[in-house]
Design brief:
142 residues, alpha+beta, Alpha-D-Glucose-1,6-Bisphosphate, Chain A, domain 4, 7-stranded antiparallel β-sheet, globular
C-alpha cells in the first residue's frame, strides 16, 4: 500500500473552492494527474455515483472507474476506484473553513500487488502531483 497526502491553505471560502473542485469541465486546469473524463463527470453527483477518469501518474496512463463514497458539499468528497493491474485507488478531499480562507487536504491511497513493487516511487510521484494540484487550485480560486 502507498499512502499520500498534501494540504494547502487557499485564500477563498470553502463554497468557492468546492465549486471549482467539482467543476468537471475545468478539472484538468488544476488536477495534475487528470487527462480526461471519457464519458464526462459523474452522471449522478451523489454517494454511489460513478464515473471514469483517464489519468497519468509516473508517466503511465491509467483508466480508473470511480465510485463516490462520501459527499458533504463544501466539506468532503471521497472516491474509490479500480485501476489497471487490480490496483485500488482512494482519494479524499477535505475542506476546512478558516475565516475567509479554506484549508484543503487531499489524501490518497493505492493498494494492490502492483503497488508493492513500486510503492516508494508511486508515493513520491503522487505526493508531487497532489502538491502541484493544490497550488494550481489555490491560484484558480484565490
Amino acid at each position: 500500500m502507498a499512502e499520500v497526502s498534501a494540504e494547502e491553505r487557499v485564500e477563498a471560502p470553502a463554497e468557492k473552492v468546492w465549486a471549482r473542485l467539482t467543476d468537471w469541465s475545468g478539472y484538468g486546469e488544476w488536477n495534475a494527474t487528470h487527462t480526461s473524463f471519457p464519458k464526462g463527470g459523474p452522471e449522478t453527483f451523489a454517494v454511489g455515483g460513478t464515473f471514469q477518469e483517464n489519468m497519468k501518474l509516473m508517466g503511465f496512463p491509467a483508466e480508473v472507474e470511480w465510485t463516490i463514497e462520501k459527499l458533504e458539499p463544501a466539506r468532503v468528497l471521497a472516491i474509490r476506484g479500480k485501476g489497471p493491474m487490480a490496483v485500488t485507488v482512494a482519494t479524499r478531499y477535505t475542506l476546512t473553513p478558516d475565516g475567509d480562507a479554506t484549508t484543503v487536504r487531499i489524501d490518497g491511497e493505492f493498494t494492490g500487488a502492483a503497488v508493492s513493487l513500486m510503492a516508494g516511487k508511486l508515493r513520491d510521484s503522487a505526493t508531487a502531483a497532489l502538491n502541484e494540484s493544490l497550488r494550481k487550485l489555490a491560484r484558480l480560486v484565490g
